[in-house]
Amino acid sequence: MPVPGELIAGALAGLAFVGCSLSNAAPTPSSGRGRRREVVVNGKRVKTVDIHAHCIVPEAAAVINHPLEAPGLLWSNLSERVAEMDAEGIDVEALSINPYWYRAERDAAAELIKIQNEKLAEFCAGTPDRFVAFATVALQHPDLAVEQLEHAIKRLGLRGLGVGGSVAGQELADPKFHPVWAKAEELGILIFMHPLGTRELEPSGRLKGSGLLTNTIGNPLETTIALSHLIFEGTLDRFPGLKICAAHGGGFLPSYANRSDAVIATFPNRVGPLPKKKPTQYLKDGQLYFDSIMFTGEAMRHLIAETGVGQIMVGTDYPFPWNKVPVDHVMSIPGLSDEDRIAILGGTAAKLLRIAS
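The structure corresponding to this sequence follows.
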């Protein structure tokens, strides 16, 4: 179903789509105005939900003179974005913004977040059948972040919380952030965690050279570090109702999580207070979720084996073509039941984000 022109014009105000800090990457080619692809599994129409799609609010970025990321990738026409979603078979995108404001002073951060969350809410209200959004907060000011989060969820109708993998060099597991996680747990919302890269490694030069290693390695590495701290520092134990979706398949952790179990037996006196469960168990128990940006069917099969089908959701990383055919990617994974595919394609995300089926 096409989006009416008047809704496009109203909802688009103040919102632009950008990607994962890859200013030299090529944009996703426009798919044109083709017929909307409807995803069907065993005769059943499935509502698909993309958990990982980027945008930016230019008015908010202007508060701290933050340059618009990858200006060549800004989408100025919502109809083009909807056409791409239609071609890909994506019914709903959950919009998030990579945090660039974690070093902002309190007053500026308050103004930025107010503008940002209100614009996100306005945009989603204009296109409610195609978009929902994660709230943003100023995590560097935890008391303010708690107020912002409650307002965004209860008053503005945003569906979850988007955070970075660290906060100006501080780990998410730092006790100073406990009030924010307590509020998220109380509200029963999903947190989408997207890495900002391991910037502390960059001055060493280890990530220079070919391969865009600041992103290729740096992004999944930060996710791995963040999740490991949340497990080993007891944050997930302290807040058992916390639900976090880690971008890019959870980084490197699911591929090598058994080493985290083994270190407890190998160096029992050096790991600190023990978590309540084996580290691998946290990947499976409904606190940690993962998107599907894993590139191959075998990688997805392994991720599912380590975490469980119920922990995986489709992610595209829009507008960058990391995962060009997300629906086909899921449909091609061997060994899944119809119910498994429906859960990954949108069932799990719809429940967590309160999206009507």
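The CA atoms of residues 164 and 196 lie 6 Å apart.
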